[in-house]
Amino acid sequence: MKLKIELTKHPKEKPSDETKLGFGHIFTDHMFVMDWEESLGWHDAKIVPFAPIEMSPAATCLHYGQEVFEGMKAYRTEDGEIRLFRPEENFKRMNISHDRICIPQFDEAFLLEALKKLVEIDADWVPHTYGTSLYIRPFTIGTEESLGAHSSTKYKFMIIMSPSGAYYAGGLAPVKIYVETKYVRATPGGMGFAKTGGNYAASLKAQDVAAEEGYSQVLWLDGVHRKYVEEVGAMNVFFVIGDEVVTPSLDGSILSGITRKSAIEIMRSWGLKVTERELDIQELVDAYKSGNLREAFGTGTAAVISPIGELKYGDLVMQINKNEIGEISQKLYDELTGIQWGKRDDTFGWIVKVK
Ligand code: PLP
Ligand code: COI
Fold first, then answer.
1. What is the pLDDT of residues 270-298, one digit of tens each?
2. Residue nearest atom 5 of ligand 2, based on CA coordinates
3. Residue extent(s) of CATH 3.30.470.10 domains in the chain
4. Ligand 2 — pocket residues by CB below 6 A?
5. How far, in Å, from the CA of 273 to the mean position of ligand 2?
6. Residues 6 or more apart whose Cβ sits within 8 Å of residue 196
7. What CATH code would you report for 4-164?
């Protein structure tokens, strides 16, 4: 497929203060768009100026939630190189999400090349400060004009990009997490493993309730037994229990995080015992009470490595590692961001250079 390029005639002002970027509020000059319909497959791939899109009010995505998205980042090294972190993993996962909600597969190699071109065109938007990056949001929506509840016969695939700072306002400071016991996010056979908007809509209510009590996000328990730890709103979770690092195994209702996978590989390369298994919330409570729960942290593209300083389960408030950044969390943050921002060697071969 050919990629058409139309550059903007009205470049926007870039943010002058990189300490105030926040997350996902500012958008670059260009975006990628491509369309799908039965007779043409994916077609009309183009990079165009960032602008609102026109769509029928009857577009299927607006009514039945046929939407998939991804989250990835471009980083600027000290010597000005612009690079991506394991982008092929995001496109692979995006096709898995597509399949779950009946959106046609796309050519991952073509999309990676198109993304590299888009980032190259908007390279000046990649912020310079350590800890900041260009957040990249590929997404697909059903666009057929129809109120029939069936899979759409038309789709739009887009990529938009946003220079961003830390996802949590406090940066690497430990976050407070609320263990959710009333609402569930996903169940076996559902779509918890897919990155589709509906999973996030399902989580908003619990998140609002937790926020009212001063918690950043909720920790989901499994939807059947309501006792096995799953993941947090925008990240996977790890617990250091004694000398074992435990993370819930991928059971179909958890997102298979790329940061999770990378963290496991890094920690194993250090010789740590990392186990993917079922983790009963009661085991965490027991470990906490016996002084064995040494650290907890979340992993995610937006959240990077986020130490968890407090976990509230019912009436029990567990202060983890005195609400301080743990040794493993800090070491992992330094290693992962070091690889991403080019301060450490990319020994795993995860970096894809843009320019
Ligand atoms: N779990 C959920 C629900 C998420 O939204 C995210 C963020 O993308 C993650 C986990 C972490 O995934 P990744 O490390 O691929 O960003
Ligand atoms: C990401 O980490 O990229 C995500 O997609 C999480 C999102 C909810 C901000």
1. 999 999 999 999 999 999 999 999 999 99
2. 71
3. 4-164
4. 71, 234, 300-302
5. 27
6. 65, 67, 68, 69, 97, 100, 101
7. 3.30.470.10
